[in-house]
Amino acid sequence: MSDQIQFIVEKLNQEPFRKNYNLITFDSLESMQLLQLLNDVLGEIDPKHHAVDIREELPEQTAKRMLSLLGILKYKPPGSISDLSAFRQGLVTGSKPVIHPVLHWLLQRTNELKKRAYLARFLVKLEVPAEFLQDDTVADINKQYEELMEAFKNLHKECEQLKTSGLSTAEIRRDISAMEEEKDQLIKRVERLKKRVETVQNHQRMLEIARQLRLEKEREESLAQQKQEQKNQLFHAEQRLQRAQLQLKEMHHAVVDSKPESLMKKLEEEINFNSYLVTEKIPRELESKKNSAYFLQKVVAEPAMSQSDLNVLEIKINEVNAQMNQLIEKRMMKYEPIDSKFSMYRQQASIIARKKEAKAEELQAAKEEMSSTERQMLLKTNQAHELEGSEVLKGDEFKHYVNKLRSKNTFYKKKRLEIAEITAEYGILQRTEELLKQRHEALQQQLQAIEDKKGISGYSYTQEELERVSAVKSEMDEMKGRTLDNMSEMVRKLNTMVAEKKASLAPVIKELRQLRQKCQELTQECDEKKIQYDSCAAGLESNRSTLEQEVKGLLEECAQEESNYRYINCMKKNLEIQLQRAKEEMKAYVSPDPQERRKAIREQYTRMILEQENLGKKLREKQKVVRESHGPNMKQIKMWQDFEQLMECKRECFLKQQNQTAIGQVIQEGGKDRLVL
Asked: Does residue 256 belong to any structural domain of this protein?
């Protein structure tokens, strides 16, 4: 409960609440203040509840409003408040056992609940009675309402997907503007090219040919892609075939070189190893992973901890470890006389069990490494077959191949020097050829002029063509003869290579037979040792498991006792503080000294009650006087208002009379002046 209150106080002190509470001030809040605080939190989640004052609202309305929102947010009361009526009553009265869990649940998932409250405004369906739905207009409106609700769901899903996709509107706008600029540039380039093409003759036919060429190129690319895919499929099929052939060969070798007893032993070993993995190793690892995941979830669910909290936890862990060591030592000292004979065997059993587990892990890792190495070897063999067309060389063959490469390297260097000399000579001959071509062209012109004069033009060209055709025919005949010679030479080389391979593999096969015999002997010896090891390890493993269970039970018991101790200690401190306050109050109340008695809380509250009662009496008397004098005072106010209106009328009449007398005097003075004139 203290962790729950601490989490609530931390969340309320942050944005957007900023209440500046501590544990004491929060715990001393009254029921109305707690309800107002809960309403503020609900208002943060749903703005409709933000501007509501609890004091101006009836308790039933407050409870109904909060219960409806909590139902929308899918809040479930804790197990201790299974009765809904009790939960409702606690919500009306502002009970701490009811309000605190609600606040803790709301503050844990504020963002999620905001989203849920927002969606509830649009997705909570209005229930229309069936008799109203018989009206066509109401039915159509209800159908439109349901369609709009479904459309809102789809739009909200799309909006969430866009938010999580990582695309921003600014990036999309930049991309659109860049694409529009590229589009404008392409349009301009197309217009310029059209203007250039329009000046060319038969441009429509050329455009059609270019379009067909583009289509054929696209078709060629698609066919090349299909060809590559088929090659890849063929390559993978060949790899699978080679793997199957290799496995078949290994199985043939295993069947030829082994007996039924050895095969049965191998199968028994594999079965024992797999059963050990399934029954012991994998369940233990799975249990440890589950425990670690449980502890990690527990750590994630707890509030964030500061460095001081971590230091306190480290100190507690060290203390608990020290206590555990002391308990183990006491237990060992207590049971030493009885278990003195078995302690050595237990220790050896635990060591052998650990070794067994380590060897099992090493064996599994070796098997995985062997399988990966076999895959790599098969891949390299396939690559070598593709590059060279022959198997990978080993031992003496590889040395012979290196010597051959060295001799070829020296031969390559000599040929390279010859190529350099030939290249220099080729430059000289090329220049000579150019000069001869120039002279030949001049002679051809002269010869053509002479043929024109004699009337036999084209004679030399026809003769050259005949000579060229005969030369090409002779070259083709020579090439056919060379091809036949090359094929016969290749067949002879292949026969010699096959004979060499057979001769080189004969000693290797003899050595392999001896090694297989040694391998069978070592395998039998290993089987005997392994049987002894398994029999010893089984007993040790059973003892180790019992010890682990005992240690686990002691750890759980220690943790339970520690939590009980801390809880009892906190309750004790609270009771001591309350007892101390009660003693001080009793001492002050019983004290004969009036000054001390005035310090008592009871006297203070009694004095405040008397003051408030006196103040209430005075206010009631004042209210009575005001009520009695209200009627006459109102009449007097009315009389004064009438008197004011009367005086205002008199003033206006007086001002009008003065204005009229002034006008009469001016008229009389004007008449006198006229008479004088």
From this structure: no
